[in-house]
Amino acid sequence: MTQSSDQMLTDFLSSLQGRPGDYVILSTLIEQASEAGACRALAALGLEDERARRDMDELRELLSTWRDVKRSAWRTAATWIVRVLLALVMVGMAYRLNLLKLLES
Q: 39 and 61 share a domain?
């Protein structure tokens, strides 16, 4: 529902406050229509059966695991990049300080 629809529904229900019988009937009708619409939406998504809750929990768990793996992979890649760069710096320093000649003698 859009904001204007919400406001219109609120205004309509408030206009019925003086007539309690009409208000109760209309309020019940709106509630049942909303529930029926939600059930149709869930059915359209294939989530109307008893297994739907378990399926959604499994999907959330799978998504959480995927995020953990992705974070771990990036962390591992960053660690290895830093190690390679430090190794290159050490080799460069050894070359500049002529430490290779000390190894030959």
A: no
